[in-house]
Design goal:
single chain; alpha/beta; 7-stranded parallel sheet; 43 helices; 49% helix; 13% strand; elongated; coiled coil; DNA2/NAM7_AAA_11; P-loop_NTPase
Length: 1107
Amino acid sequence: MEAIRKQIEEWKSGLLSPNQNDVLLNIKPDKNALAIEDWYNEEKLFTVPDHAFLKKCDKQHRNAIKESGTPIFGLAKDQLCFTIDHQQYQMPFLLASATLHFNRFNSLFEIEQTEDFYVNPLLLNLLNIEDIASDSNTALQTLEALGLKVQFENGVWAANFHPHRFVIQKELDALSDLLHFNNALRSLFGEQNESADISLSDSYLFPADASQQLAIETVKKENTVVQGPPGTGKSQVIANLIGKVLGKEKNALIVAEKSVALQVIYDLLKQKDLHHFCVLYHHELKAKQFVTSLKNTWKTLESIPKQNVSVNVKHELLLSGLDLKFKRLQQKDLIGGISFNEFKTEFKALQSVKYVEQKPTIPKWKKELESLKQLEVNGFPIYGSWLYLKTEQFTIADIQKSLQKLREKCNQFDLEKYSPKQIEQRSKLSLLNSLFFHDDNALPISIFEANSKTQKKLLKHYHLLKTLLEKKEVLVAEEKLWKKQFSLTELQEYIEVLSNKSRFNFKSWRVKNKLSKYTHLDIGDTKNALENLVELTDIKRKIITQKEGLRKLDLPDELPVLEHIVYAIKRINSADQNAVQQLFEFTEKERLTLKSQNQDLNEVQQLIRYYFQFDDAPIGKQIGELNEELPLIIENNTRLKQISIATKNILSSVSTLAEAEHIIYNSHWKDFKGQFPDLGETTGKDIQVTLNSIIEAESLASDEFSNSITQRIKQGFEEYHQLLQTPASKLKPEQKELKKTLRKGKSILVKAFDKKRVFPSVRELLESEARLWIQLLHPVFLCSPYSVAKSLPLDFSFDLNIFDEASQIPLNHIVGAVQRSKRVVISGDQQQMAPQFYFQKKTQHQMEALHHASFYWKNVMLTHHYRSKHPRLIEFSNRYFYENKLRTFPTLNPEIPIEVITTKGVFTERKNEEEAEITAKIITTKIQNNTFDFGLVAFSQTQLQAILDKIPAKERDQLTQHDFIFVQSLENVQGDQCEHLIISLGYGKNENGDFHMRFGPLNKEQGHRRLNVLMSRAVSKTTFIRSVEAKDFAISDNEGVESLRKLMLFLEEEERTLKNTHFPEGIRNNGDMLEIKNVSNKFKDAKTALDFYRTMIDRDWKVEIGI
C-alpha cells in the first residue's frame, strides 16, 4: 500500500500550483475575467454581448471539452479582498460551472449556470481551513475571527476558472488519509489480484454477441479491461452489465469524462424504462435537479402496479438445443465415419436398398472401393469364391494349408454334399451323442428317455446311494478308533450292557474293562462310539442293497459313472429334442460311428469357422471353386487383404459395386436416423425458424427482465414502508435500528421534495440517513470523475464500477471511484487519443487509466464491428491498428464506401485552395439537397477555414444551424460519427514542387492514432480529397507520417478495388439474398451463427440457410 500512497503524493504535487495570475487568486477585469452582473440570471439562460474575452474563453472551453471532456468555463459570485504575508488577493468567493455558447445569428453569448455556487476551493486551501459558510455575512465573521481584514465586493464574473483540479486534489487528500485501500485499488497497482466472483443476473437487457458475452463473463470473475474498438458495442456491454447488476439488487457507478458517453448509456436504459433508477450527474447537476430526480422516481414507484414477473428462458433452451445440433453436424465421424455435410453430399436415398448391420465405415469403404475397382480392371472375379476366405486375417499359406486339410477331411468322411451349416449341425449332434457313452462304453439308451421308468429308478438309486456314501464317509473314521473289528451281535451285546444304569453291576464293569483294551477313548464315550459302528454297519448294508438294485437294471453301480449319466440326462433334456430324437432313432452302431467321427467333425467345423466364410451351398462345391480361383487369389493377395469382412459379406449379396455402395450408405443413414431422428430430418429452413424463434424469445425475455428489475426495486420500496408501519414490539434490534434510520431518511427527503429553493447538496444527502433511500431510488450513478470526487462520499460504495472511454481518463482521476467499488471494469480503446493533462507539471509523466489497467487486469477485446455499413470503411483501422481482428457486417446495397479525389492543388500559405474549392462544392451540394448527414474534417484549422470561406453565405448559415454536424480540424476529432465523412488533406507540394511532410498534430506524439480516429468515423461513405499520393512520401521514422503514407497506399488500393460487397467463403451474395450453403461448417457454434443472422436481418438482407 505504500507504493500507492507514494503515487498519490506524486499526483498531488504534480497538480499545477496556482500563481498570482490565476483567476482563482486574483480577478483582473477584462484580463482574466469579465464582469457580467448586469446580465446575470441564476434561474435561467441569459445572454451577454459579444466580447473578445468571451471569445477567447469560448475557444479554450470548447478545446478542453473536446480533449478531456472537462469543461473549464464558470461563474464567480462576489469577491474577497485581503492581504496575507504582504501579498494582496482579490479572490472570487463562490464558484459554479456554466455553459457557454456563441449565437452567430444575434452575435450574443448564451450562458447558463449548471450547478449551485460553492466556496472557492483555493480560498480554503490558502487559508488552510476545511470549510466555510457560503453565506457572505457568516463567511466574513469566520474570516475576521481568523484575524483577516477582508473587504467584500458584490458582483458576478465569467471566466475559465478550472475549478475541477482542486476537487480532484481534495479527493487525493482523502485517499491519503485512509488506513486501508480496497482490493480493487490494490490490484490496479499490481499489489493484489485476487477477487471473488460477483453475482450477476443471467438475463440480458440487449442482445450480446459472443465477444460481448465473453467480456461480461470475465467481469463476473475479476476486474476487467474491455478493449472496444469503434462501433463494437461498448455501450451495449455496459448497459447489459448494469442490467445484470440491477437484476441481483446491486448498484453501479458509471464514470466517463464526456457527458455524451454517459448520455448514450442513459438513453439505452431509457429504452427499457430503467432510466428512472439512474442519476445522470456529469459536471452539470444542481442540487435541485438531483432532488427532483429522486422525487420523480419516488412517485414512479408509487404509481407502478405490482406484478409477479418471471423471466422466460426459452431462448436459452432453444440456443442450447441448436448448439448441440451444430456440434453434432460438425462431428467429423457422425455418419459412418464422415461428417453430416460430407455424407449428405455423397448420399442418395433409395427406398428399396436393404439394410445390413455389419458394414465398413465410409472412409474404409472408399479405400476398399479403389482396390476393388483395380481388381476388376485386372480381371479378378470380385464376386467370386475369394469371398469365402478370411484373407484380411491370415496369410495365403495358412489358408492353403487349411484348405487342403479341409478337402481331405471332407473326402474322408463323405462331407462334400453337406453345407457348412449341416456340418455344424452334425458336429453338434456328434457332441450330443458322446453323452450316451462313458469311457467309450455305450450306456443303456433307455436311461436317457425322459421320464421313463428306468430313468426314474436310476435317479432314485443314484440319490439314495450318494446320500449313503456321504454318510459312510463321515462314519468310517469311527472304525479307526478300535483295534478290533466287531460283529453286529457283539456290538449290540456291548451296547446293551453299557446301557445298564445300575451302580454296582459286575457284568458292566467287566465289559468296560474288556473294551478299554481295544480303544484309547474315554470309557464314558464308548457307548456312543459303539452305536456309530452299528449305524455304519447298517449304511454299508444299504449301499449293497442300492448297488444290487442298479445291477438288476443292468446299470453301473460306480458313483462317478452314475454322476456322468445324471449330467448327461440333464444335458439331453435341455438340448434340441429333435436332435435327441434323431439319436434315439439311431442304431447303436450308428451312434458308435458318429462318436468315432466326433473329433474330426469338430476339426472340420473349426477349420470352416476359423479360416473361411462359406455360404450354405455344399462344401465340396465351394472347395472346388476355391481350388480353381486359388492362383488368382494368390496373385492379388495384397489387395484382397485390404478388404474387410463386412465388405466381403456385402459383396457376396450384390452384383455391382454401386449396389454395394448404396447398401453401405443407406445402412449408415438408417443407423444415424435411429440414433438422432430429429437431426436426420433437419433442414436449413428448420434452423432458420429456430434462429427467428430465439430472436423473438430473446426480445420477450429482455422486456420481462427489465420489468422484473422495476418490480424488485418496487418491492424494496414497499418493504421499507412496511417496516416503517411495523410496531417496534414485533421487530428485532437490528430491524428497529434500520427503521429509525429509514424514518429519519424519509423525513429528510420529503422535506427536500417540498423545498422551492436552497436544496441540500448531493453530498449532504448521501452523508445523511437518506442514503438508504437514495441507493434504492437511484442504484445507478452516471458521473464524471469530477462529480464523483465532488459529491460522492468516499464510503459510498458500489458493487460495480465501469469507466467508459477510459483512454480519455487520466489515471489519477479514477482512483477515488475505484476505492468506492467492489468490481471494476475499464472500457475503452487504446488506439484512440489519450487525454490532455491539464494542471500538471510538464516534467511529470502521466498515464491514462486504460493503458495502465491493461498491464494488471484481464483484457477482453470486442471484435464485432457494427458501425460501418461497408467493410472497407473500417478496413484501414482494422488492418493497421486492430490486427484484422474486427469482424464486419455489410449492409444491403451500400454506397461506394470510399471515394478518392486526387487534385493538383498547391499547398501555399498553409492551405490548399483547390482542395478547399472541391470540398466546399461537395458540401454546398449536400446542403442544397437538404442532406445533412455529413461531417467535415480538414487536417488543419487553416484548411478548415479555407473550406468554410468558400461555402456560400446562405449554405454556411444553414450549416451552423445543425449542431449535430461536426466540422472539425483533425486535432479536434474524437468520438464523432456521421453517415458521410468528407476529408480534406490540404497538405501537398508548394509552388516549387517541394513536399515538406509537416502535418501539424500528426507529427506529434500519438499522431498516428488521429488517423485511426479519423478513418473510423464514417457509417456509410468517406470522401477523401487529396493533392499528393503515396509515391510523394519518403519513408519516415515518425509514426504519424508513416501512418499517413500507409493511408495513401490504402486509398490508392481502394481505387483499384471492386465496389461489390464480398463475403467470406461459404456465404454467397445473390442480390438481396445471402445464401449460407453449410451453416454448421461456416460458424463454429450456434451463438456465432445467431450473431451473424440477427445482424444481417437487421441490415435488410434476406438469408437462406442450408446444411
